[in-house]
Design a protein that fits this description.
about 45% helix, Rossmann fold, 2-hydroxy-3-keto-5-methylthiopentenyl-1-phosphate phosphatase activity, about 220 residues, HAD-like_sf, 9 helices, alpha/beta, 6 strands, 2 domains, six-stranded parallel β-sheet
Length: about 220
């Protein structure tokens, strides 16, 4: 038994296409209108500032959107993009346009861990706002109550750096943590930080045939 289980989302709990196709396609045409319609939101204003700083583009909204679409096409985990996507998805879930779906084994495993007293947290490149909305509007109902913490690249750091996992451990106040992910590089970083690790090799997913050694590997939770 472990005190904490920390979970990746994309490719681990939910199919990659759920993010790269369904969610990305939903966000893509809404980025420009969201920037223009929420210019007085300090979170959006900061995201726009970061886009300009990172890209060197100092033009109108259409030019910023072209930068964001380029990042999306390359599946780059860029903080201001994740921030804006998270806000758009949050609204999409609230409006009933989006419903989160999981691999069949996921929700039973989450509920079993929770019932057994294992504490659950999430570490995903998607923003905390997007994560909370995701788990709040699922085909299995509202699952937010199963999780005690959410971490992203803003409040923890890059997913392939050991320092991020040390930062999470400090917040959790524990060194008894097991991390589940479908990305070997993330598992390597977590192991370097002293965590237990489990590789999730889902058939048909981008990392389904990856080399997960030396991590314990499963095909379902």
């Amino acid at each position: 038994m472990t005190e904490w289980v920390v979970l990746d989302i994309e490719g681990t709990l939910s199919a990659t296409d759920q993010v790269l196709v369904v969610l990305y396609d939903y966000a893509r045409p809404r980025l420009g209108p969201w920037i223009d319609g929420h210019g007085d939101d300090p979170v959006v204003a900061e995201a726009v500032r970061q886009i300009r700083e990172l890209s060197g583009v100092d033009g109108v909204t259409d030019e910023l959107v072209r930068v964001l679409h380029g990042w999306m096409d390359a599946d780059q985990k860029v903080t201001p993009l994740k921030t804006l996507q998270g806000l758009i998805w949050q609204q999409g879930y609230a409006d009933g346009d989006l419903v989160a779906e999981f691999f069949p084994d996921v929700v039973p495993a989450l509920r079993k861990w929770h019932e057994d007293g294992v504490k659950l947290a999430v570490f995903s490149s998607g923003s905390v706002a997007g994560q909370v909305a995701f788990f709040g509007h699922t085909a299995e109902g509202d699952l937010r109550g199963l999780f005690e913490h959410h971490f992203d690249t803003v409040n923890a750091g890059p997913k392939r750096e050991a320092a991020s996992y040390r930062a999470i451990a400090a917040v959790l106040g524990s060194d008894d943590i097991t991390f589940y992910s479908d990305v070997p590089a993330e598992l390597h970083a977590a192991a370097e930080a002293g965590w237990r690790t489990v590789g999730v090799a889902r058939p048909g997913e981008p990392y389904g045939d990856a080399d997960f050694s030396p991590h314990r590997t499963v095909s379902a939770l």
